[in-house]
Fold this sequence. Notes:
Shape of chain A: flat
Number of strands of chain A: 0
Shape of chain B: globular
Low-confidence stretches of chain A: none
Number of domains of chain B: 2
Order of helices and strands of chain B: HHHHHHHHHHHH
Largest sheet of chain A: none
Number of domains of chain A: 2
Structural class of chain A: mainly alpha
Radius of gyration of chain B: 22 Å
Helix content of chain B: over 70%
Order of helices and strands of chain A: HHHHHHHHHH
Oligomer: heterodimer
Amino acid sequence: MGILKTLFKRFLSVILDILPLLCVIFIFQTFVIQKPFPDLEQTLLGIGLVILGLFLFIMGLENALFPLGERIANQFAQKGNVFWLLLFGFTLGFSTTIAEPALTIIASKAGQLAADSGAIQANDSTILFFVYGLRLTVALAVGIAIAIGVLRIIKGWALPWFILMGYGLIILATFFAPQQIIGIAYDSGGITTSTITVPLVAALGIGLAVSIKGRNPIVDGFGLIALASLTPILFVMIYGMFVLGVA
Amino acid sequence: MMPQENGLFEVLQASFKSTLVDILPILLVLIFFQVIILRKNIPHLKQILLGLVLVVVGLAIFIMGLEKCVFPIGTSMADQLTDPLFLSNGDEKTVRAFLSAVRVDPSLYTWTYIFAFMIGFSTTLAEPALIAVSIKAREISTGAISEWGLRIAVAFGVAFGVTLGAYRIIMGTPLYLYIAFGYLFLVVQTVFAPKAIIPLAFDSGGVTTSTVTVPVLAALGIGLASNVPGRSPILDGFGLIAFASLFPIIAVLAYAMIGQWLGKRYQKSI
Lengths: 247, 270
């Protein structure tokens, strides 16, 4: 009975998560556009799938991604080897970002844009080099961010200093970075952390903060994702300065 | 048009593939470090494996559902709302005057702003990564940070950011002016905000733009940039995502600052 009740409650909460989105779409279609739904059957099927998918995902979240991140953090903390932990953080950040589909799309768009504007030569190999360079830069940025973030949790350094320094550098770099790269740089900060990586990385940080004596999970455990969305902006602008020249 | 003639099976296959690409590097890294470095068994391995299957299948089905109902309607809405014919209520003469105007009147786009605000707000509430982070925040704060409180603060931030971003595309002002000012504001706010909330606030900025929000925002940005006279989709379409990850941080910090201020006032009154 207990399990069924929990499942039912979770199912209701998923419907509540989706409801605002459905309302917005329904209201605009009916009152503003004033046209019937193009394919009502498909739309209803889609709504059902969205609810089912989110329900399964959240179950998996609590059964796999959260415990996995916390246990690995715990095992590393017991082992007590900082180097391996930093390498783990770097590899996790780097490998999830280099394969990220959203980054692949943005990077190839950026390559086309740079070639069109005459910033780089418009032949295939130059564009390809630029695109791969961009993806590598973002992946390195995320890997380094997670490694620094893990070190910060171990040492108990305060996050605001990192944030202030990071954004200070970003504002400074914005003045020197070539115009064409700025929009791409700022967007790349937002797209690098995917739906599967976020829960795992969050659980990793909190798991570490719980396992290490004297750390507070709220103050020290969060912040890995923050750093991972900050460094790509800076790194991409620096990449732009190197490849396209200083503005 | 969205690929409506595509069968259910093809769509499912595509979304499975992208989810697997997402999880494969994570699995490889985890297995490598578990086997080579840690050399320990993971407790409750069966439960975790089952959970991972749920994550992959759930996310694939979720994305497939979005592609069936949310993305096509979001795209056609973004397109229709910014259509010159819609803006001028179907009056031909106004359309011609509109298209030849050097500078568009930003007040014509009232419906676009309302749509941008509401779609930014509602897609953020449906974002799985944000749900995950707010569950964790509630758990470790033992309820002091409420799941819905955090998510609604973030959603307001995204909604405001997207609306401002739409206004920027319509006006054509350079992106870096807004961004530099926004970050400057954020830096000042960071100095004064309660220290305990800062890591969570900056984390929530990074998680808001993900599975649900990015495709809808991209459609809105491109729809606007290609329909507003004098804008180019490549140059002006960028930037909505940047706005949508900057303003949630400001919103969560503001939420915590207001809470702290109210708390202090309450303490003074007793």
